[in-house]
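Render this sequence as a predicted structure.
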Amino acid sequence: MDLLNNQFFLILISGLFTALAASLLGAFIVVKRMALVGDVLSHVALPGIGLALMISVDPIYGAAAFLLAAAFGTWLIEKKTALPPEAIIGAFFTATLALGVILVPSEELFNSLFGNLFAIKKFDAVIIIAVSSIIFFLTLLLSRRLTLSIAAPDLAKSAGFRPDFSYLAFLLLFALSVALGIKLIGSVLMGALTILPAVSARNFSWSLKSFLIFSVIFGLVMTFIGILISTMFNFPSGPAVILTGIIFFIISLLFKK
């Protein structure tokens, strides 16, 4: 059997690579106390999806364009005004959510919000695998700078790092990871895919390295189980993955030291 013609394989491999990138980034989101910011930023994709559908372009490209613009805009406004990122993204959120509901056709709105497993095609899988791999390895390369910028910005500057540019790179990588998960998880729940593995991992971990490893493992396992449940019982993929992650988080509370 040709694996590339197997729809379940396409869905599974796309989901696992999406989770790989999102769960590693999510660890830094939690450490930086930006969990709610990450969740809200994922909603910014809606108007991009709507515009892409209007001009008959794949929604993932419209979502990526809007998310990258919002990430850069958040960084620029925070740099210029010193406003907290949650306030800036909150303003983006209300405007883009209203615009997105207007632009996204009603028949496409549910899939855009909560994901659709069967929207994943061969080309989508190739794009998701390639971009997720790039995000994962770039995050690993930036991990020392990100950690130092979060824990000790002054020390990062003295070491020759630019915390503001590390933060911009972090936001742009996160925006890309959200765009990749739009079809599988949906714009409403994609932020949760970055947060849940990390908050679960934090209850098990004893160091930064163990925290990152557990976050990635939990992200992969919850996505695998969620996709399996979604395929078997014909549930929406996004809620199935996220509810699996919630169960992981509840179990992790029993092991918190």
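Summary. The longest helix spans residues 122-151. The chain has twelve helices and no strands.
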